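Customer escalation, tier 2.

The customer says the design service returned an amino acid string that "doesn't look like it belongs to this structure." They asked us to rerun it and document both sides in this ticket. The original structure tokens are below, unchanged.
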């Protein structure tokens, strides 16, 4: 039965682990952030040492995701757009034919005209505060400024 460990204290190059059943503590020196994370998730000592030996032998690598949450949402939305296509297609601008886009997420303020009585004409309607926001994936052609918007909720990337 593997020994489950709990991280008691973490130093710059070591961490103190405790066996939850027998209160035995041990210190592993030369630890990596991955080993600390494994121990924090309740990995056994055997798993941690096996991981260490795999890295030492060059049979394992670590992939670090440094994308921000907004970049992850954008990448997820673009992947979903690609998945929903029925045929392979390049995304050239339909106006100028250039393939150079600026991609961002915009929250567009919105007022539903269906949910309230008709507004009087004139500038009064522009003084109303928005009742909600539509989260959109915005693609803007860097050459001519042509814009495309996709609803992030429909693409499975809610706020």
């Amino acid at each position: 039965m593997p020994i489950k460990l709990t991280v008691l204290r973490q130093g710059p190059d070591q961490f103190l682990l405790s066996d939850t059943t027998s209160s035995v503590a041990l210190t592993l020196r030369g630890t990596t952030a991955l080993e600390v994370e494994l121990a924090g998730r309740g990995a056994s000592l055997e798993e941690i040492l096996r991981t260490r030996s795999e890295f030492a032998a060059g049979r394992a690598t670590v992939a670090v995701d440094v994308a921000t949450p907004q970049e992850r949402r954008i990448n997820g939305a673009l992947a979903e757009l690609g998945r929903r296509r029925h045929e392979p297609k390049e995304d050239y601008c339909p106006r100028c034919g250039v393939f150079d886009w600026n991609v961002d997420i915009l929250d567009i303020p919105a007022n539903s005209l269906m949910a309230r009585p008709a507004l009087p004409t004139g500038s009064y309607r522009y003084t109303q505060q928005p009742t909600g926001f539509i989260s959109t994936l915005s693609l803007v052609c860097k050459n001519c400024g042509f814009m495309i918007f996709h609803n992030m909720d429909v693409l499975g990337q809610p706020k």
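Tier 2 assessment: The sequence is consistent with the input. Helices lie at 33-40, 45-56, 69-84. The longest helix spans residues 69-84. Sent an explanation to the customer and offered a walkthrough call.
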